[in-house]
Amino acid sequence: MTKPLLKVEHLKKIYPDGGTVLQDLSLTVNKGEVVVIIGPSGCGKSTLLRCLNRLEDINEGTLQIAGEEYEKEQKNIHKIREKIGMVFQSYDLFSHMTIIDNLTLAPRKVQNRKREEAEVEADKLLQRVGLLDKRDVYPRQLSGGQKQRVAIIRALLMHPQILLLDEITAALDPEMVREVLQVVLDLAETGMTMLIVTHEMEFAKAVADRIIFLDEGKVVEEDTPQNFFKYPKTERAKQFLHGFKYITRNG
Questions:
Q1: pLDDT tens digits for 36-47?
Q2: Rounded-to-integer distance, Cα 210 and Cα 229, Å
Q3: Per residue in 209-248, pLDDT tens?
Q4: What are the φ/ψ torsions at residue 170 (nearest 5 degrees)?
Q5: Given 22, 54, 174, 231, which residue has the most CB atoms within 10 angstroms?
Q6: Does residue 84 contact residue 53 with C-beta atoms inside 8 Å?
């Protein structure tokens, strides 16, 4: 049996004020799989991704990437983060640098790659998402959707084994949302392993191999998108989906 690319066991995260955000949470992501995490606000979705990328320390549990445990790693944490790319809701582009410089900074400084090599790869990815003509402009000259596509490319240039996407469309208007989601759909078709937090239910249906429903820091239910959205098993999932459908109809 093939081992999962990412494995989380009995993860617990407690904030300094004593609030438990994640409790006894376990999940796996297989190579080439797209797993989408949904759930109500405050249920721990974004905190989970930050724990996986070790931007947040955990209190208990184990984290594995490609069979390597890393929950206690400190000295070589940058090596772990090269394997686990992350794209945030906020684009975090350097405003004083051009797009091509933003994209090639980490490959050059962290991976010691030559500028020419990094730029060739960046140009190919920019072409792929329709932004090659923006390579020499500054972030302030881009729309929100364009900035988010650049942020995705920046993560891909580090050649991660898995990509974590945290509510990457939350700050975008509907037209920009479509631009970004199309990029993610295209990545899924190439076999990119992804763990995605989103509130876009239609997108979750379209891109996910598996849905994980979180509530109060725990995995309440997981299934294929076809089964989860049509035949949720738990009462909590039924309540969540019913409320979401009501808001969609009346919003």
A1: 999 999 999 999
A2: 11
A3: 999 999 999 999 999 999 999 999 999 999 999 876 643 4
A4: -60, -30
A5: 22
A6: yes
Q: What is the DSSP letter of 251?
A: -
What's the pLDDT score for residue 244?
Answer: 67
How many Cα neighbours within 13 Å face the side chain of 120? Answer: 5
User: Which has the closest alpha carbon to 196: 229, 129, 206?
Assistant: 206
DSSP letters spanning 152-199 = HHHHHTT--SEEEEESTTTTS-HHHHHHHHHHHHHHHHTT--EEEE-S
Q: Are 120 and 132 in contact (CB under 8 A)?
A: no
* DSSP annotation of 218: E
Report the alpha-carbon distance of residue 68 to residue 38 in Å, rounded. 27
pLDDT digits (tens, 9 = 90+) for 166-203: 999 887 888 888 889 999 999 999 999 999 999 989 89
